[in-house]
């Protein structure tokens, strides 16, 4: 008899291939830094108490930590103490939640044989630059997420035709992303026309037309 062959796993693909998504900083990072600072401060206090105990013959009850424990042990249980305990329990549960909270997603993958990722803020900058280069105009604002792209552009008088051109240009620009964002275009009032009308109204208010002069009546 021959033994059954043990199935082997498929070999890993050779050559470049997309890697894992880069992730943002974990939510527990700031809490870990703060906790480390508090523990370092507590370590300093403990070292001070040990030094005073061995070199100054200070009694343990007179040390900073000893006085702190005596002070905490002198409290009488009442409603305020129970409330404080409940608050501390809630804070502890929040800290546990942040400890296990996954790292946030903040990148979008680009279709490429290598690992290439971009940030939503870079997508927004690219969208603004694309609209300015393809359609002209300086009144362009963009805001992007991982799945959506919102663009505000000044209306040049063509209305819906401008929206269609901007949407088509951006869809063509970001089709190389693994998940192209949904493009939303909003038209803004033309700043030049608005400023011209405002200046005209200001000049009219500053320099009113002269009142008509009544003709003289000869007697």
The name of the CATH architecture of the largest domain is: 2-Layer Sandwich
Instruction: State the helical fraction.
Output: 40-55%
Number of helices: 6
Main CATH class of the largest domain: Alpha Beta
Radius of gyration: 35 Å
Shape: elongated
CATH superfamily of the largest domain: ANL, C-terminal domain
What is the percentage of strand-forming residues? 5-15%
CATH topology group of the largest domain: GMP Synthetase, Chain A, domain 3
Low-confidence segments: none
Tell me the structural class. mainly alpha
Measured between the Cα atoms of the first and last residue, the distance is: 143 Å
- What's the β-strand tally? 5
Biggest beta-sheet profile: 3 strands, mixed
Structure keywords:
mainly alpha; GMP Synthetase, Chain A, domain 3; 2 domains; 3-stranded mixed beta sheet; 48% helix; elongated; membrane; transmembrane; transmembrane helix
Lay out the secondary structure.
Elements: H1 28-55, H2 64-73, H3 79-100, E1 108-109, E2 117-118, H4 120-135, E3 140-144, E4 148-154, H5 160-173, E5 182-188, H6 191-206
Parallel strand pairs: 4-5
Antiparallel strand pairs: 1-2, 3-4
């Amino acid at each position: 008899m021959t033994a059954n062959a043990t199935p082997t796993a498929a070999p890993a693909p050779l050559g470049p291939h997309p890697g894992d998504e880069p992730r943002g900083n974990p939510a527990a990072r700031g809490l870990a830094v703060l906790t480390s600072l508090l523990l370092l401060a507590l370590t300093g206090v403990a070292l001070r108490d040990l030094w005073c105990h061995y070199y100054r013959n200070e009694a343990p009850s007179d040390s900073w930590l000893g006085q702190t424990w005596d002070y905490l042990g002198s409290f009488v249980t009442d409603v305020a103490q129970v409330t404080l305990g409940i608050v501390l329990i809630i804070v502890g549960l929040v800290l546990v939640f942040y400890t296990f909270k996954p790292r946030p997603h903040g990148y979008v993958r680009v279709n490429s044989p290598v690992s290439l990722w971009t940030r939503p803020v870079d997508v927004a900058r690219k969208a603004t630059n694309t609209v300015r280069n393809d359609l002209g105009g300086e009144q362009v604002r963009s805001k992007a997420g991982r799945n959506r792209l919102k663009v505000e552009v000044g209306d040049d008088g063509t209305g819906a035709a401008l929206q269609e051109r901007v949407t088509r240009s951006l869809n063509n620009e970001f089709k190389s992303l693994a998940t192209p964002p949904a493009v939303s275009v909003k038209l803004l009032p033309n700043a030049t026309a608005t400023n011209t009308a405002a200046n005209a109204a200001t000049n009219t208010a500053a320099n009113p037309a002269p009142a008509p002069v009544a003709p003289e009546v000869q007697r």
